[in-house]
Amino acid sequence: MSYVDGFVLAVPKANLDAYKEMAQLGGTVWKEHGALAYVECIGDDVPYGEVTSFPRAVQAKDDEVVIFSWVVYESRQSRDAVMAKVMADPRLKSDWSTMPFDGKRMIFGGFQPFMEL
């Protein structure tokens, strides 16, 4: 069964084009190194919940959009191998202070699917 890395983050609307460029490069690199799929989504119907919500989770401000993305791999073992190559790829070397979003508010993690239809 596959393995999935998931990400949720807030991007300032003014930085959305820069984020899309960064995501395009990231998707290219992940796929070249073996990811099966790479998906980036802009929040379209993500209301601010009273207790929990995507915007609350990343402390999204009024001038930010929520991004939800995921990468699919063949397995956890494949993910670990792909991730090592991605992290070593010089195309993704960047100064975190120049990122088009606040990485401290990004949520990410690896998930083992229990059902795929």
From TrEMBL:
Organism domain of life: Bacteria
Protein name: Uncharacterized protein YbaA (DUF1428 family)
Taxonomic lineage: Bacteria, Pseudomonadati, Pseudomonadota, Alphaproteobacteria, Hyphomicrobiales
